[in-house]
Amino acid sequence: MKIKLAGKAHREGTSAKTGRNYNINIIHYLASVRGVEGQAAQTATLDGVEYPYDTLIVGGEYVIDYDAGGHLVDFAPTTKPQGQGTPGNGR
């Protein structure tokens, strides 16, 4: 589905519960959702290494797709921003 990136946040650190390091970017966008009149605010969590924070452009258009289980399978810009490489793996 095609989305417009409305916001982004970066989280990095060590989990207090597991002791494992994490590096994630959380993106915010609007999407149609069953039972919602208008659009609903949605979030998706992206790997911070695979999708670097500075390559995520607020206001940019992206394609985001999930599998039947609701797991992210694709996230990529609809067009390559000028002067920047393509973020993510574009699977």
Helicity level, as a percent range? under 10%
Give the termini separation: 14 Å
Helices and strands, in order, run as: EEEEE
- What would you call the structural class? mainly beta
Tell me the β content.
over 45%
Strand order across the largest sheet: 3-2-1-4-5
Give a quick account of the main beta sheet: strands, pairing sense, barrel closure: 5 strands, antiparallel
Q: What value does the average pLDDT take?
A: 90
For the CA atoms, what is the radius of gyration?
A: 14 Å
State the total count of DSSP E strands: 5
Indicate the overall shape: globular
| Tally of helical runs | 0
Low-confidence stretches: none
Write the layout of secondary structure elements.
Elements: E1 2-14, E2 21-31, E3 40-47, E4 61-66, E5 72-77
Antiparallel strand pairs: 1-2, 1-4, 2-3, 4-5
Gist of the model:
This protein has 91 residues and is mainly beta. Helices cover 0% and strands 48% of the residues.
What does this molecule look like?
By secondary structure, the chain is mainly beta. Helices cover 0% and strands 48% of the residues. The protein has no helices and five strands. The protein has strands at 2-14, 21-31, 40-47, 61-66, 72-77. It has a five-stranded antiparallel sheet with strand order 3-2-1-4-5, with no helix packed on it. A hairpin with a 5-residue loop joins strand 4 (61-66) and strand 5 (72-77). The protein is globular, with a radius of gyration of 14 Å. 10% of the residues are buried. The mean pLDDT is 90.
